[in-house]
Each structure stands twice: as structure tokens, then as C-alpha cells.
UniProtKB/TrEMBL annotation, chains A, B:
Superkingdom in the source lineage: Bacteria
Cofactor(s) for this UniProt protein: FMN
Protein family membership: Belongs to the flavoredoxin family.
Matches recorded under InterPro entries: Flavin_Rdtase-like_dom (IPR002563), Flavoredoxin (IPR052174), Split_barrel_FMN-bd (IPR012349)
Record Pfam families: Flavin_Reduct (PF01613)
Domain Flavin reductase like residues, every copy: 17-169
Keywords assigned: Flavoprotein
An MF annotation (GO) of this entry: oxidoreductase activity, acting on the CH-NH group of donors, NAD or NADP as acceptor
Name of the protein in question: Flavin reductase family protein
SUPFAM superfamilies registered for this protein in UniProt: FMN-binding split barrel (SSF50475)
Length: 187, 187
């Protein structure tokens, strides 16, 4: 890819802008000096303020213990420039390889957590564990986004949306219906 | 729209196919003889089998009590044929209007729950409440999908993905990367 996305600070209360459309994300973590990355499609926004996001992280992932022990992660937003990287990360395990090195990604120091951000991604949402009541039964973590950075351009990045079975849908046309909304329903 | 989508039975273990890409959905409910519909974008797949889906249903919605009391709902998948309907449903309340009548939608009898499906939608996922441990604190419901129906065509429907602020992203290009996946990672 030609250069890195130039991320700027972004309001944590507005991360729904990027996550509500349902993209595949890359979740990075760090624990005891080692870093890892996993591909994840099972997430949802839960609240604007505090900025809460729910992530289902399967217990079979090497990242699971790293994220639970550190209580932190960064949710990184990849675009079509990283399609094969997203697949590669999802098909390998951090138990055997250093994913940053293996996939030529750049670990970027985050601002509020120790887990690294991924420079090549369009946006990075730094998260601290907020609630683990459903982790044992459902592997469902609730994180608070404590800092957010996003590239202002392109305004609507070509995010990847996983349908299963090796097939992705790419973010398409933008449809503006602001005129039909009650004012209090708009951001 | 020209005719209704012709839905056929679909395996409940494969609903990630439609929900993981992150579309806006219409959630229909019934309680004490009254039906309602709400627009919802905050959801995630949680498990293949049993087929579990998490929904964040804000307590301010008229549907909240209907869904909690009945322990049921149907998650309906609208496409661009229903864009203005999706907006209209999200900007009105079932406390004052009958949304099926107001928006010209057809209530279709579901197979395993009393809540109605919406005939005009591409797919319908019939749900029973599975876990309410996080409802009081986060309005987060975990449902089991007990029956699923989806139109076989089009294979990749033009779903709507909400970015906030009155703007939707429409499902775009399909990218097949099956060849790069380990076989056990495919559905």
C-alpha cells in the first residue's frame, strides 16, 4: 500500500461510525512482552458514553488469555488494502508465530493502553476491559473505548464484512437519508 | 417492490452468513395481541450451535418491554428496497402507531414463535430469549435462533449498514478468498 493511513484523534463516543456497519476487525494485544493479533467479526456497539463495545473472543484463540490477563486490547479497522493479511491472521495462531513480523505489520504505540495499534489500519480503538460477567459462559467481553484514532480520508473506507465460508462483502455505496430523520435521532 | 422475497428454510447454525456482515435489522415482537417493529443495528453473532445472537435493545424503545415480557422476537433482514421504511420505523414509536399498518408491511406467521415475521424482508430469524443476565445493566439480550428462513435469491442481498448521522452504507462487491483458508476454517 502507498504509505500509511494518517490517523487523527477521534471522539470515543462516535466509534459507532466505524463499528456499527459490522466490519471485520483486527484485535491486537500485549501480555508479558509479547504481542498478538486476531481477526474478529463478532462485535457490537453497546453504548455511546461511556463508549462500550462487546466482543466475542473464542476461547480457542491465543489472544483470549492475553486479552483477559492484560484487560486491554486495540480494535484496528483494516480495509481492502489488507484483505489477504486479514485472512492470513485469521488462519494462523500467535502461539507459533509473531504476527506483526509474519505479515509485515507495524506495531504503533497506543496512547492509553499498552497493547499496540496497527499502523497500516484505517482506525484504532484503544480498549480497557469494562465487564467480564459473560466471559466464562459466552466468551463475551465488554470493553470501554478509552481513546480512538481514525484517518479522515477516505471518509468511507472500503471495509471488509465477513459472510463466512471464505467470502467477504466490501463496503459499497453510501446512501444519505438525513432529511428523513428526526433531529434528535442524528449524531 | 415487485413481489415478496420467497423465503425458504435455512439452517439456524448458519445465520452468521447474514448477520455477521453487520446489517441493520428490523426486530418484530408481539405481546398481549399487539405487534411492533424496531430498527436495530447493535447486534452480534455469539455462537454457531446453539445459534446465539446478542442484541442491544435500548430501554427507551417501546419494543423493549414487549420483547422482555414475551421472551421472543423475530430478526428480519431488510434490503435497499426498504431503505425509507427502515428509517421511518426507527424514527417512530410503537406506543403511538401500528408500524405494520403505517409502513404497509405484511405480518407473516412465524413457525416457532408467536412474534410475527415481516414478509417484505429477505430473511427472518425466529428467536427465543436465552440469557438475560446483562439486560438490567446493559440492555443486552442473548437470543437463540430457533428457526431461520431466507430467500435464496439474490445470493448476496443489498443490505443496509448504518454509520450513524442518517447515513447508510450499502453492501457492495463480493470478494472470495476461500483458496487462502485452511479447510477447517470454512463453513
Amino acid at each position: 500500500m502507498a504509505g500509511f493511513p494518517h490517523k487523527k484523534e477521534f471522539p470515543v463516543s462516535r466509534v459507532r461510525r466505524y463499528l456499527e456497519p459490522g466490519p471485520i476487525v483486527l484485535v491486537s494485544s500485549r501480555w508479558r512482552g509479547r504481542s498478538n493479533i486476531m481477526t474478529l467479526g463478532w462485535h457490537t456497539i453497546l453504548e455511546f458514553s461511556p463508549s462500550l463495545v462487546g466482543l466475542m473472543i473464542s476461547g480457542g484463540n491465543h489472544s483470549f488469555d492475553m486479552i483477559r490477563s492484560s484487560g486491554e486490547c486495540v480494535i484496528n479497522l483494516p480495509t481492502t488494502a489488507l484483505t489477504d493479511t486479514v485472512v492470513g491472521i485469521g488462519n494462523t495462531t500467535g502461539a507459533r508465530i509473531d504476527k506483526f513480523a509474519e505479515f509485515g505489520l507495524t506495531a504503533e504505540q497506543a496512547t492509553r493502553v499498552d497493547a499496540p495499534a496497527i499502523r497500516e489500519c484505517h482506525a484504532a480503538f484503544e480498549c480497557r476491559l469494562h465487564e467480564d460477567a459473560l466471559v466464562d459462559r459466552y466468551n463475551f467481553f465488554i470493553f470501554e473505548v478509552v481513546a480512538a484514532h481514525a484517518a479522515p480520508e477516505p471518509e468511507y473506507p472500503e471495509t471488509l464484512h465477513y459472510t463466512g465460508d471464505g467470502v467477504f462483502m466490501v463496503a459499497g455505496e453510501i446512501v444519505d437519508r438525513r432529511a428523513l430523520f428526526r433531529p434528535e435521532m442524528l449524531d
